[in-house]
Amino acid sequence: MIRQRKQPETGAEPDAQARRNRAVAVGLDVAPLGSAGFARAGFADPTLVLRWNEIVGPEIARFAQPLRITEGPSGGVLTLKADPAASVFLQHESRALCSRINSYLGRLAVQRLRFVAGHMKPGLPASHRPTKSDSVPEDSLSPFDGQEHLRRALLALARARARNGPSAKD
Questions:
Q1: Tens digit of each residue's pLDDT (9 = 90 or more) over 129-143
Q2: Between the CA of residue 135 and those of 5, 132, 161, what are the distances in Å?
Q3: How many domains does the chain contain in total?
Q4: Does 100 or 164 have the greater pLDDT score?
Q5: Which residue spans within 16-150 are E strands per DSSP?
Q6: Neighbouring-strand partners of residue 1
Q7: 23 assigned to some structural domain
Q8: pTM for the full model?
Q9: Could you count the other beta carbons within 10 Å of the beta carbon of residue 99?
Q10: In this structure, how many other beta carbons lie within 10 angstroms of the beta carbon of residue 127?
Q11: Looking at the structure, do residues 64 and 138 belong to the same domain, yes or no?
Q12: Can you give the C-alpha Rg of the chain in angstroms?
């Protein structure tokens, strides 16, 4: 007796793909979930969140990050999580920030900003590998007229700073 394959039901979803017992890239399954999360926060275009550092600049991105965008009767309102001390400064810069955001999006999407106080996590420093340009040349201390042991100590300090990258105190 020959078995016939079961025919798909006519009420099945047309978008559902048949399983073929092979591995599929995780990104294909994650993309709809990620876009659903952005949509719940009001971000139809997730690039505002993903490219926030490029849109507003690294100085402002250190102190604020977008949380939600809502449409109101007077236009879009972008809610930003910001350090409490920085929110006063950012309030003064809100007109410039709105114009930057709108020019990036290509439409008048944000009319005003709303700030929610919250402490920002410091950004993780990028791994810094010393390059040849990071090395301190010997002639950088040539105008120094002090004692030789002090000159060597200053040169060692300059090399250590170049190797470790700029510190948070700079």
A1: 445 554 555 555 566
A2: 71, 5, 10
A3: 2
A4: 100
A5: 64-72, 75-82, 112-117
A6: none
A7: no
A8: 0.53
A9: 12
A10: 6
A11: no
A12: 27
* Same domain flag for 112 and 142: no
**Exposed, middle or buried: residue 161 (CB in 10 Å: 0-12, 13-18, 19+)?**
middle
Predicted pLDDT of residue 17 = 61
The residue segments making up the domain with residue 159 are: 132-164
Distance CA 127, CA 35 (A): 30
Residue predicted with more confidence, 146 or 126: 146
Tell whether 57 is covered by a domain: yes
**8 belongs to a structural domain:** no
Are both 39 and 66 inside the same structural domain?
yes
Helix, strand or coil for residue 100? Answer: helix
Q: What is the pLDDT of residues 115-125, one digit of tens each?
A: 999 887 765 44
Same domain, 136 and 70: no
> Can you name the residues that pair with 114 across neighbouring β-strands?
79
**Which residue reads 């926030």 in tokens?**
52
Virtual torsion, Cα 136, 142, 144, 146, nearest 10 deg: 100
Mean pLDDT of the chain: 76
Contact present, 133 and 120 (Cβ < 8 Å)? no
CA–CA distances in Å: residue 64 to residues 42, 103, 108, 113 = 18, 19, 21, 11
